[in-house]
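Exercise 7. Given the components listed, write out the predicted structure of the assembled complex. Treat all entries as one system.
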Amino acid sequence: MKIRTTFCFAIGLSALAMAAPASASDLVLYDALDFAGPVAKAFQAKTGLTVDVVEPGSTGETLGKIAAEGNNPQFDIVWLDGSAVMERMAADHVLQAVPAAAYDKVAFTDLGKSLVPQSHAFLPTGTSTTAIEVNTKKVPADKMPKSWADLQSFAGSVAAKDPNLSGPAYQWLAGFFQTNGVDAGKALLTKTLTNKTFAGLSSGGKVDKAVLTGDASVGINQDSSIFSKIAAGEPVVAVYPSEGSVSLPQGLGISAKTQHMDAVRKFIDFVTSAEGQAVMLNGDDTDFFYIPIIKGIHAKPGRETNITYTHLDDAAASAHEKEWKQWYKETFVQ
Amino acid sequence: MQHTDVAASARGVGTGRLLQGGRAVLVRCAGPFAIYAVFALLIGLPLALVLVQAVMPGLFAVQDGSNILSFEPLARVFNSAHVASSVLHSLELGMLVACTTTALGGAFAVLVQRCDIPLRTAISTVPWLVFLTPSYLKALAWVLLMSPGGYLAQFGLLPSWLGSSFFGLTGLVFVHTLSLFPLAVFIIGNALAGLGSELEDAARLSGAAPLRIWLRINGPLLAPAIALSFIATFAEVLSDFGLASTIARMSNFGVLTYGIYAAASEYPVDFPAAGAQALVLLGLVLLVVVADRLLRRRADPRLISGRSRPARLYNLGKWHRLAMAAALAVALLALVLPLTAIAARALTQTLGHGLIWSNFTSANVVAALSLNTEANDGLLRSLFYAGLTAVIASALALLLSAQLERASPVLRTAVIGLSLGSVAIPGIVLGFGYILVWNRLPGFRDWPFPHYGNGSLLVMGYVAAALPYCLVVILAAIGQLAPSLTDAARLNGVGTVRRLLAITLPLVLLSVVTAFLLTFIRTVFELPISQMLIPQSGPPAPTLILRLFSHDRDGLASAIALVAMAAAGIGAALVWYPLQRFVKPRRSAGHVHAGSSPIAETGTSP
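Answer.
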């Protein structure tokens, strides 16, 4: 009888313990950005509003979670790299339009203004772009690539991310097709990404690793990732292709079903304030090396900001997303 | 009881007695029914929701969900050359690894439990320590070691032909075998411990040579455990994601789990493709389970009678040093080298600069050990969730095993099939299933407990992922109990709960604790479910480690992993060693006084 009581007691206690960690916060933030956690902490300290930060991993994994939640989303704000995917979520009514007043309050630079989407699907908080990552130990200075087309001479040792698994990589692919033309772009990539081992990596970190330790001499990678490696002392440089670079905005999107619109507004105000931007710049990881798009805010030292941009046609990128991702998967991943 | 019921109703006696009989049937059915319901809820329903999308592709569409039947996703998957090749790859890899792992694990178990080799106690801890290292860390360690610019190449220890052939089937079999052999050691070792030595001693007294004894007596008696080890390893390889996403991915050796992951990590998720590939995966595992059942129709041997004698150790003579060297070589490859690689990475600033003095730093480890940091919070959270999961999963597995022992063969096969099938279902799919059930399904999504977004559902997911392992371990032990033990108690009017706690549990206690510790350690590092069901209150350690890896901060990630392994290892040791001491003397005492114990006496009567 004693054993039985102990047994029941143990089970009961376990059930109680499981019930305990339920939480009810003022704001739930889904993100895949290094600085989101520190920003949420600073916001909490300033306003007293509590924020639950949920970071499932890569952008792809965060998007997978949002897709699985479907018509019963649990987040209030999503904060990610990439504009095309935000447009797509807005079109699916997972996101609601950002109120016009929220944009009016922000002192955007010209670059910042150019990133505000017509659909109001997201509010840009910074940007970065895609560059060619070159290992200086493997590629001599006179053999440096200067354009996407030059990558053909490195065929077989070019590392790239699979756009199916990485939001930033899709942004690059869509931009690449925009500047090179879809058919010519496909032909160029087919000649360049001849080694499937490196053509479908899942994150910028893996591209870095392939370029630093693997057989890859060059990689197609988000430039902020390259600058964080340079700052850490790794032997790599970022080369911007002569065709121009497509910017990759970091966007804040608002859930269509949020019940906390007031807190959302306050969070947007904080992120776009000098105080919030200072937190976004105070770290060593990839995303802290973003390009600020608000007047008076400067990028981290060593980060290149003098870049020739071309802007992505989000509507075209969003419309062809499934088709282009599928093409990439069938050609380079499978 | 049943006979009385039938007879009573057949005679058409008063309705009162009929009602009483009905209530008795209800009471008898309630226990098993409740347990099967829990089982269905934990694994069956989430799995079904993922799989059904293979034929109802629009069921969970973001907009305008529909339940129209369509075979388009299945047709798409079966017509894809890529899926066909990944099925073949998965099968080829699973078969090879099941053979090598069972052979290595079986040999290791016999060597450690039955042979008189030097450093036996130290060597017997190796499988546990290997088990402590999560597969994604081992895979990463081998990538650090074997890649062209990796540590072995930096030391000139890696001939180029070996480096290039490693990233393919050879390397995958090698790393999987070294990573999974503890599973075989546990399963076969448990059966070996329960085997005792009476039969062996009898054979020896009749003049049989050791080889003959192993081939004709121990071998056949261990066959169920060997088969279980084979199947569990096969299922484990099919469902593996750690190696699939690292070495297999790098060698362009596509396997099914990676295909499912790729279909599930995008927006919008290609649920139908994920469901169809999961269906193929589950089908493969079920085929193996059914084949196994058909092959060994014979009843499983029931040997533990409460009196088995601890076995004698073989004296290997001049071979004992060679045997020790072999065991140490396994330890070196499976444990020392990978851990050294991770430790080296944790203690260096960059990977590219290699192991030069100026590159060493303690910053990563200090960051992982500092209190009130995100890393430390995640670690403590994971240890708590893992402890809770281990208690629930091992208790549940014990109850289920006891019920299954008495269930009909068909039901038993079905439940074992489903649980092994769920081993083969990647955690990421089970995680998706959980989101679908607890966030989308009307009736479930509004339940306050468990609730999607907090720790309760994460623990439930962990329990579901751990339950099959606990079942495998505990069923193997309970399957060896002579039914006469509990039958005797039942005839004496002892109730079900007391029979379970006072007779079955003490006899299989070591297995239950094994299941508990397996679950605890696995859960501390469980990756895909942690990722899909992250509580809003904060992430568990694996998600943190993964995030750092994907952001190429593998130095800090390696440091957190090292601290987590140490914490889990010390926690497990604190449970295991006192308990082993507590159980062992009682066992021998039970043996001495067996003659005077009424239960043991009844247990051995024919």
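Discussion: The longest helix of chain B spans residues 554-592. The radius of gyration of chain B is 26 Å.
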